[in-house]
Amino acid sequence: MTEEIVKSALSKVMYPGFTKDIVTFGFVKDIVINGNDVSFNVEITSSAPEVAQQITDEATEALKTAGASNVTVNVKAPQMPRESSSHGKNIAPQVKNFLMVSSGKGGVGKSTTSVNIAIALAAQGKKVGLLDADIYGPNIPRMMGVADVKPEVNGNKVLPIKAYGIEMMSMGSLMEEGQSLIWRGAMIMKAIEQFLRDILWSELDVLVIDMPPGTGDAQLTLAQSVPVTAGLTVTTPQSVSLDDSRRSLDMFKKLNIPIAGVIENMSGFIAPDTGVEYDIFGKGTSQPMADEFDTKIIAEIPIEPGIRTGGDEGKPVTFANPTSESAKRFAAAAESIWATIEEINANGGVDNQAVQPTTPPGVSACSTGGASAAPQSSGGGCGCS
Ligand SMILES: Nc1ncnc2c1ncn2[C@@H]1O[C@H](COP(=O)(O)OP(=O)(O)O)[C@@H](O)[C@H]1O
Ligand SMILES: [Mg+2]
Prior knowledge:
By secondary structure, the protein is of the alpha/beta class. The chain has two domains: about 5-75, GMP Synthetase, Chain A, domain 3 (2-Layer Sandwich); about 100-370, Rossmann fold, CATH 3.40.50. It contains 13 helices and 14 strands. The strands form three sheets. Strands 4, 5, 8, 9, 10, 11, 12, 13 and 14 form a nine-stranded mixed beta sheet that branches. β2, α2 and β3 (about 70-75) form a beta-alpha-beta unit. α3 (about 110-125) crosses α12 and α6 (about 185-195) runs parallel beside α7 (about 215-225). The radius of gyration is 22 Å and the shape is elongated. The model is unreliable at about 370-385 (pLDDT under 50). Magnesium ion (MG) binds near residues 110, 111, 134, 137 and 139.
């Protein structure tokens, strides 16, 4: 037997539910050949025993047909990457770090920020995924220029869509355009879990997660499902936005999520013809709030027509116009976020043990308005409002 023969035999074994084989997916690792005896590992994130069994059976048969005598197949979950030092429950262990992007209200530029920060991190050499967890308003596919792309779906497993050097998944990519959604708490929780468990994310340095606005079931479920490394809050400079952003920062505190900073978006307007900067909604007004939560403003992003057109046309400014002022500020914010993530990991990482549900499985602590998910906090408990 040679490695070539082994790989060629294994390339006939499809990953259950998919039209691609386990070699093409890159799941086959550590092939050891001893005469006609073959052993190897299959690293898959699926924990379903029937998936492991099917792969083992089919791989053994394929290799025996190719002339192998003894075949040993070890199906196992990928190692938790060592760069992450986080603990607790993690239903997407191939992802090293999770960045939760939140805002108090909609329309402040949360999705715009998520997209541009994700692309900036990728441009800085990180392996990045972008999860559009805004189930009610999934705008990321349009902003990423993949509104018409449907992912490879089979059963309930889905491959992320690739664009601008990152992997992306959104409810918008899974449903028909314009379809409206009415979600109840339990459905949101299930959707968030499936986004983490049933999407075949690669081994990622960081998954950027664009949350729905506010503080609710989606935020709590995310924090309970994976150890969220850091949280980012996007706000605009007006007081009415800042009031809501405080709630978002308070939620991070209650869920034990370290804060990576605040992005003040629509902070001034740079006239494209003259380059003169005008205050429209105000500017720098988020500073007292950042101080209050012991964090910092990591970018003031001006209103720039190119940000809006870039979003609408699916050409994010960070990619389409990297020398623009806003792209430079997004890049600096991405560097700051990464430095924070590294520091958090150097100090032992995060642990989501304290926010695990105290309500029965499938029942939302938020929906019931009852039990506290973060026993050490006072008030709302689960961080929902
Ligand atoms: N700094 C900015 N300059 C110009 N337009 C912006 C800026 N930030 C966001 N926008 C536009 O405002 C709208 C709302 O932004 P979006 O990111 O969808 O907000 P959210 O996700 O918070 O609802 C989008 O059309 C987006 O292109
Ligand atoms: Mg949005």
